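User: Predict the complex.
Assistant: Input components as received:
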Amino acid sequence: GESVGLHLPTLSVQEGDNSIINCAYSNSASDYFIWYKQESGKGPQFIIDIRSNMDKRQGQRVTVLLNKTVKHLSLQIAATQPGDSAVYFCAENRDKAAGNKLTFGGGTRVLVKP
Amino acid sequence: GAGVSQSPSNKVTEKGKDVELRCDPISGHTALYWYRQSLGQGLEFLIYFQGNSAPDKSGLPSDRFSAERTGGSVSTLTIQRTQQEDSAVYLCASSPHKGPDYGYTFGSGTRLTVV
């Protein structure tokens, strides 16, 4: 099966500061992207999504940016809070013809320092 | 129920034994997915059920892995003759959509440890 497992990078951020989490994707045909948050012992939780016809989308305290030219996706968290400490995954819908499964990146651990 | 329910939450088994992992999706969700998450890594796709269509089994790592979905609801993932490399968290997700739109709702997973 597909495996996108990588060593887990860690982002340490001071409470109140902004966080930026980056993700590179490989398939230029991917047209839909999602960011998930996973807290310890829980399943991933949907945060925000974006389609390839957009380059920016905002939610509550979160913004996703998509740069199709360099196949790069980022998640910005404003005024990071202790509850934001978690592992964050990007996911892409690579191949609609092959089904509707998502392919996940390796994840970034965010640690919020008080 | 209100969310995706998986059982057991933890399973320790001896190498060579068979295990069954259960997933109760959200009622009415037609799509059901199984993913595997090894320690400190991302999610690896295993299998996908959509309504009455034939499942997409392209992610199953070997023929020791199989899954069923009965009556379009509950799903069971079976691992035969477990190996230590099967140790991981097995996550189930469901969705009301045919596509990945709005993402899936994940359960909390079953942590499988093969000793």
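Chain A is about 0% helix and 50% strand.
Let me know if you want any component modeled separately.
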